[in-house]
Amino acid sequence: MDTTLPLPFLPSVDLSTPPTADADSEFTSKQLSYLGCIFFSANDSNIDQLLGFLQGHVSIEAYVDVSDITSTEDIVTILDSGASKVFATAGTQLNVLEKYGDRVIPILAAEEAHPTLPYANGVLVRAGDIQSTTLKLEILTHHKVAPVFLTTPPSSPQEFVTLATESSAISIIPSNILTISGQSKIPVPALIASSWTSDRPDELIPTVVTDERGIALGLVYSSQESLAESLKTGTGVYQSRKRGLWYKGATSGDTQELLRVSLDCDQDCLKFVVRQKGRGFCHLPQSTCFGELHGIAKLEKTLISRKESAPEGSYTARLFSDEKLLRAKIMEEAEELCDATTKENIAFEVADLIYFALAKAVGAGVSVSDIERSLDKKSRKVKRRQGDAKGQWAEKEGISTNGTNGNSKSPEVKEIVKEAASVPKSADDNAGLKNGRITMRRYNAATTSPEDLKAVLQRPSQKSTEMIMGIVNPIIKEVREGGDKALLSYTHKFENATSLTSPVLKAPYPQSLMNLAPETIAAIDTSFENIRKFHAAQKEDKPLQVETMPGIICSRFSRPIERVGLYVPGGTAVLPSTALMLGVPAMVAGCKTIVLASPPRADGSITPEIVYVAHKVGAESIVLAGGAQAVAAMAYGTESVSKVDKILGPGNQFVTAAKMYVSNDTNAGVSIDMPAGPSEVLVIADKEANPAFVASDLLSQAEHGVDSQVILIAVDLSEKELAAIEDELHKQATALPRVDIVRGAIEHSVTLVVKDIEEAMKLSNEYAPEHLILQLKNAAEVVPLVENAGSVFIGEWTPESVGDYSAGVNHSLPTYGYAKQYSGVNLGSFTKHITSSNLTAQGLRNVGGAVMQLAKVEELEAHRRAVSIRLQYMDDNGI
Ligand SMILES: NC(=O)c1ccc[n+]([C@@H]2O[C@H](COP(=O)([O-])OP(=O)(O)OC[C@H]3O[C@@H](n4cnc5c(N)ncnc54)[C@H](O)[C@@H]3O)[C@@H](O)[C@H]2O)c1
Ligand SMILES: N[C@H](CO)Cc1c[nH]c[nH+]1
């Protein structure tokens, strides 16, 4: 796409009656396209038509008068859609469009006597009467304003075209008065010829012939007559210095399709852009008069010829027919390019990538010039995109792509929601810091609007479902289809455990894999026993039985789920305690097959504590894999991973998304426990609370991950009491080994100051925390007010971490507000209930009438008869 005006005039097109392809018309739409530029007058009602034209004609330079458009946004859309320039009225329009620089040209109205603006980008003069227009053009010429565009009034177009030519202005001429050779209209060849200057005695004009990409094919000469012939036939026609009109290719067959005609900057050379057919332009056996093509042009030519007919065994031909191979190669080369470092290497890899990318383009009929046109169009965009990497690619490179939508929130709150995505990348990153201290933001509920309070209590923004699913879906598909091999390859990739050769460790586990310090064994054993006791107590001693009517016994009894898969997270921290929290109730419930899954360490081994727990709960195997791949393996089964009926356990977003996916796939036939994501805690503290205890509880969950959130609701605390907690938080956090993770979590954690416990509980119930800690004087008395929470920790001597490990309650709990509808893991998570009915003959007599009547209402006769046949039998047999 040229940026200078290609010709000394601009054809204007009326969008309601554009020129047609009709060969009989004096100037067809095709001929118009050879000129390469068009002027439009846009208004509020034809804007859609204009945008449609811009969309479909990316190689045409569009000049658009937008003075009749009322909305600035619409004008910006016109620029964004690729219009070369817009002409705007002085004043408001120009002021708001100023930032678009030389793509906006002012309009000088006909009635405006003297041009007063500097017109640095040129000007459009609306023709008035001939004298005033002449005067304006003289003034503009005197002030060296360029380019000057001049409209031609329908009454005397030729007069104004002449005026424009004399003053080097560009006349805007309605395309319906243009012709190639007609008498009553304005002939285009003559118009072009009148503005070129030839310094040759025969007055021929040198003509550079190029291909679509601007590669010079050769030099020829043109006359007004040959130009007219070329425009008429749409082919390359020139003026031979010896033999008159020269129809290129007439004898050799190497013809040319005309694409564009333009003049150079000082109008002493024509340029013809053509699509060369046959062997090439030159009379010698080469593509151009300056030798053979090279680089990308040569590659494109080769690819096109391979597409048309390829020699036996051609690799390029294979690429055209094997879509998967081409896709894989493009991705492989892109990755190699990303990894290249030296200049030589980068050039090498870019070349490889271009080869495969062009194979894709040529295979789809896309030329390099199509690509260049797309590039040019993109360069015209004014509504810039943020340019963030998408989903799986951002993930792969560890780029945070979290977004925010804080539309109606106050600026301060908007800031919080935005910053919820930030993660400290190093010690220098100031996430979570305020004046150099690790501090949570503080809000007073009395002075914060309910809407802002809601925003403040929003969880850190998660990656969009679409983005996560974009990563997880292919993983699941590959593991389902590829089994062990695919599972192993993901473990090699994500866990770096490249030496691992089998994805499963089967029981019995060798003692060498469970070597633990005696105190660790004792701690696990203590926790095991408490968890076992608490979950065993949840067992129903006997089936529930109710006689609903005389002779009708309804019962409900439970049975263990036969095969369960337990996911034990192992990304940012290895959590053997989660193995206990899932394994012990599975064992107590009597599940026959217990499969554990956890990401292995880089050397392929699994934490001995997890192996020990697997051994204690009687797990049949440990899947040495994490993330979506582990979930998929347990859901569908592989050669060595046993398929399960239910998957339980917390995990990051990939794990949670995969659990959701497989539970929705009827082919998997698997259910899940709940969405259990990033850990969170809400502490309600009053004046009695020990600031050090409060801070320690908050930090115990903040250290889980940067996506964790901790909330303090301070009941009627004074500034001094709040400061004491904040001091403790900073002091304790700074001393933690995981201080960077803590800072990431603190960045989007808050303190809310409220007046009383009722207000605190209202906010807490609305937030529905995973863990609720009551650091209150009469903590136990507040429990009846709890409506939504995963697990509650009552009083100053109950830190949340006792629940995480050893008290006996389960730590696998609903997060993200799901405590409103889900329970944490409990014995019931590993069982299902079956009901039974048992009727005597009397029972059937008692209820039969109701059954038969309802079956009749539903018109289900067989249902009705199943009762009536029995009742009849009883009657017949005296029962
Ligand atoms: N709610 C609860 O009850 C509870 C209990 C314990 C832990 N948790 C939470 O569980 C989470 C554990 O998360 P984690 O990351 O530490 O361990 P994880 O085991 O859940 O996830 C690690 C796995 O994620 C996969 N993964 C990582 N990056 C990936 C990528 N770019 N693409 C695809 N897969 C990728 C890898 O396979 C890796 O093995 C934490 O948020 C923690 O707070 C919650
Ligand atoms: N607090 C986590 C549940 O959100 C569980 C856990 C494991 N280890 C320590 N804590």
UniProtKB/TrEMBL annotation:
<feature type="compositionally biased region" description="Basic and acidic residues">
    <location>
        <begin position="385"/>
        <end position="398"/>
    </location>
</feature>
<keyword id="KW-0067">ATP-binding</keyword>
<dbReference type="GO" id="GO:0051287">
    <property type="term" value="F:NAD binding"/>
</dbReference>
<dbReference type="InterPro" id="IPR021130">
    <property type="entry name" value="PRib-ATP_PPHydrolase-like"/>
</dbReference>
<keyword id="KW-0862">Zinc</keyword>
<dbReference type="GO" id="GO:0005829">
    <property type="term" value="C:cytosol"/>
</dbReference>
<dbReference type="GO" id="GO:0046872">
    <property type="term" value="F:metal ion binding"/>
</dbReference>
<comment type="similarity">
    <text>In the C-terminal section; belongs to the histidinol dehydrogenase family.</text>
</comment>
<dbReference type="Pfam" id="PF01502">
    <property type="entry name" value="PRA-CH"/>
</dbReference>
<dbReference type="InterPro" id="IPR008179">
    <property type="entry name" value="HisE"/>
</dbReference>
<dbReference type="InterPro" id="IPR012131">
    <property type="entry name" value="Hstdl_DH"/>
</dbReference>
<dbReference type="GO" id="GO:0004635">
    <property type="term" value="F:phosphoribosyl-AMP cyclohydrolase activity"/>
</dbReference>
<dbReference type="InterPro" id="IPR016161">
    <property type="entry name" value="Ald_DH/histidinol_DH"/>
</dbReference>
<comment type="pathway">
    <text>Amino-acid biosynthesis; L-histidine biosynthesis; L-histidine from 5-phospho-alpha-D-ribose 1-diphosphate: step 2/9.</text>
</comment>
<keyword id="KW-0511">Multifunctional enzyme</keyword>
<feature type="compositionally biased region" description="Polar residues">
    <location>
        <begin position="399"/>
        <end position="410"/>
    </location>
</feature>
<keyword id="KW-0368">Histidine biosynthesis</keyword>
<dbReference type="GO" id="GO:0004399">
    <property type="term" value="F:histidinol dehydrogenase activity"/>
</dbReference>
<dbReference type="GO" id="GO:0005524">
    <property type="term" value="F:ATP binding"/>
</dbReference>
<comment type="pathway">
    <text>Amino-acid biosynthesis; L-histidine biosynthesis; L-histidine from 5-phospho-alpha-D-ribose 1-diphosphate: step 9/9.</text>
</comment>
<dbReference type="GO" id="GO:0000105">
    <property type="term" value="P:L-histidine biosynthetic process"/>
</dbReference>
<dbReference type="GO" id="GO:0004636">
    <property type="term" value="F:phosphoribosyl-ATP diphosphatase activity"/>
</dbReference>
<feature type="domain" description="Phosphoribosyl-AMP cyclohydrolase">
    <location>
        <begin position="219"/>
        <end position="290"/>
    </location>
</feature>
<keyword id="KW-0560">Oxidoreductase</keyword>
<keyword id="KW-0028">Amino-acid biosynthesis</keyword>
<dbReference type="InterPro" id="IPR038019">
    <property type="entry name" value="PRib_AMP_CycHydrolase_sf"/>
</dbReference>
<dbReference type="InterPro" id="IPR002496">
    <property type="entry name" value="PRib_AMP_CycHydrolase_dom"/>
</dbReference>
<dbReference type="InterPro" id="IPR016298">
    <property type="entry name" value="Histidine_synth_trifunct"/>
</dbReference>
<keyword id="KW-0547">Nucleotide-binding</keyword>
<protein>
    <recommendedName>
        <fullName>Histidine biosynthesis trifunctional protein</fullName>
        <ecNumber>3.5.4.19</ecNumber>
        <ecNumber>3.6.1.31</ecNumber>
        <ecNumber>1.1.1.23</ecNumber>
    </recommendedName>
</protein>
<keyword id="KW-0479">Metal-binding</keyword>
<dbReference type="Pfam" id="PF00815">
    <property type="entry name" value="Histidinol_dh"/>
</dbReference>
<feature type="region of interest" description="Disordered">
    <location>
        <begin position="375"/>
        <end position="411"/>
    </location>
</feature>
<dbReference type="Pfam" id="PF01503">
    <property type="entry name" value="PRA-PH"/>
</dbReference>
<keyword id="KW-0520">NAD</keyword>
<keyword id="KW-0378">Hydrolase</keyword>
<dbReference type="InterPro" id="IPR001692">
    <property type="entry name" value="Histidinol_DH_CS"/>
</dbReference>
